[in-house]
Amino acid sequence: MRKEIAVLTNPTSGKGKGGSVADSVVPRLTDAGFDVRQLTGKDADEALDLARGVVADGVETLAVIGGDGMMHLAAQALAGTATRLGVIPAGTGNDVARALDIPRDDPLAATDVVIGGNERTIDLGRIGAKYFVTVLAAGFDAIVNERANDMTWPKGQMRYNLATLAELRTFSPIPYVIEVDGRQHRFDAMMVAVGNTTSYGGGMLITDGALADDGLLDVIAIAPMTKLELLRTFPKLFTGAHIGHPKVTRYQGSTVTVAAPGIVAYADGERMSSLPLTVEVVPQALRVLVP
User: Quick one: which of 161, 175, 155, 149 has its CA closest to 266?
Assistant: First the structure.
């Protein structure tokens, strides 16, 4: 008997890559013996409704073609359910795929991971009723994201580079109050990030060493630096070499409250809410397919 699998596509992911990826993924799944339910949401609300419909119908696996925004959306529908998430990257950052060791540049190889059916259960971060998979940005990185979202030109990574340079000119350290499992810490910092996994922003290993299934959140705080120091430290975020720097502090806990003035936090690259906010880890919340 053929199994049903649902495939949810964001056709605009990766500058239109999502649609072409679906054209190769669906035949691969069909050839592997699946009956494929193809779903395409015209916007985020419709895509979320479609994902929830898959869960309600008891479909075992929802394969999502898209970037981190689509994986974030899928997590809202799949968290705490029996439906498994298959990740087929087609975005620009693909940090969810990176965290799960899913091939990021070969959609058919990622599809083969889905076909293989090897399952892992991971934690999620939760802010109120919203879940996230990767990292919450709550500092200079979030300010850059906010500015970039208001820009219409240029497209892609260059927009974030320009937003970074624009914000760096006037940026000053931010006063934070954070609470980790009931212990309060007050300090000024350039940024604070709360990670369920290790990376955001297309491979910046801000919370390098974080584990997605340990029931803990990893908090990284970067103390005030000169602008030159920050520019010199920035490349180290892509290797994790900033961990251990004397101006980098790490905390771990299951519940983290972050408060700071004027910051709108982002998670999985999506706008969440203004600080203060509280993040809880939800252990073993999402079933995912991995190599």
Answer: 149
CA distances from 118 to 22, 58, 61, 269 (A): 21, 19, 12, 27
pTM over 0.85, yes/no = yes
pLDDT at 98 over 90: yes
Q: Which CATH architecture has domain 3-117?
A: 3-Layer(aba) Sandwich (3.40)
Q: Which two tokens stand for residue 51?
A: 């994902």
Q: What b/e string do you get for 243-259 counting C-beta neighbours within 10 Å, with b at 16 or more?
A: beeeebeebbbbebbbb
Condensed to tens digits (0 to 9), the pLDDT of residues 208-226 reads 999 999 999 999 999 998 8
Residues spanned by CATH 3.40.50.10330 within the chain?
A: 3-117
DSSP line for 111-154: HHHHHHT-EEEEEEEEETTEEESSEEE-SHHHHHHHHHHH--SS
CATH for 135-284, among 3.30.420.240, 2.60.200.40, 3.30.365.10, 3.90.650.10?
Answer: 2.60.200.40
Residue with tokens 């925004």: 69
C-beta separation of 189 from 222 below 8 A:
yes
Which part of the chain is CATH 2.60.200.40? Answer: 135-284
